[in-house]
Amino acid sequence: MSPDAVAVAALVILLFPMGYFLLASPAFLLVKLDIPPVTQLLRGMFNIQFRMISVTGVIGTAAFTFAGRPLFAAGIGLITALAIWGRPRFMRQMDDQLSARDAGNADAVRQLRRLHWSGMLCNAAVVAALVASIPYVAPSA
User: Fold this and answer.
1) pLDDT in tens, 54-113
2) What is the pTM of this model?
3) 108 in a structural domain
4) Within a domain: residue 83?
5) Containing domain of residue 92, as a range?
6) HSE (CB half, 13 Å, CA atoms) of 123?
7) How many angstroms separate the CA atoms of 110 and 80, rounded?
8) Is residue 141's pLDDT more than 60?
9) Which of 15, 28, 60, 97 would be a feasible disulfide site paired with 10, CB 3.0-4.6 Å?
């Protein structure tokens, strides 16, 4: 397999979990976040999203390095670092809001929704950037 093909495969592997999250997460906009099973499912989805980006990001960084594309490797490495660093912070904020909601704090549901929106928007921005980079990654015919 050529280095260019490895880079394209790595990009597709990285886009797969992000695309899934992009399609699955808006469904939570249709339900109230004051229902504990719904918020636990949302929390689990964010948790696995961060983990998947971390794993696929490491693979993508290695593949772009192997393909001799240091700029793309640095970009994917930055996404990976943000996922690894951001996961504990984001999950702690979500857990704090879930605890506050369970304690009767009326503002906690609004904060959970804000976290949901921010996670979706950040993911959409990264997906858009990766999709826009496809012509620069794919080998020219």
Assistant:
1) 999 999 999 899 888 899 999 999 999 999 999 999 999 999 999 999 998 889 999 999
2) 0.88
3) yes
4) yes
5) 3-132
6) 26
7) 28
8) no
9) 60
Residue 114 in domain: yes
The answer to whether 141 and 12 are in contact (CB under 8 A) is no
Would 16 be classed as within a structural domain?
Answer: yes
CA 37 distance to own-chain centroid? 22
Asked if 77 and 124 touch (Cβ cutoff 8 Å), the reply is no
Give phi and psi for 104, each to the nearest 5: 100, 10
| Domain total of the chain | 1
Structure-token pair, residue 51: 């983990």
Cα(86)–Cα(74) distance, integer angstroms: 18
Fill in the DSSP letter of residue 138. S
The b-or-e profile of 85-110 (16+ CB within 10 A means b, else e) is eebeebeeebeebbebbeeeeeebbe
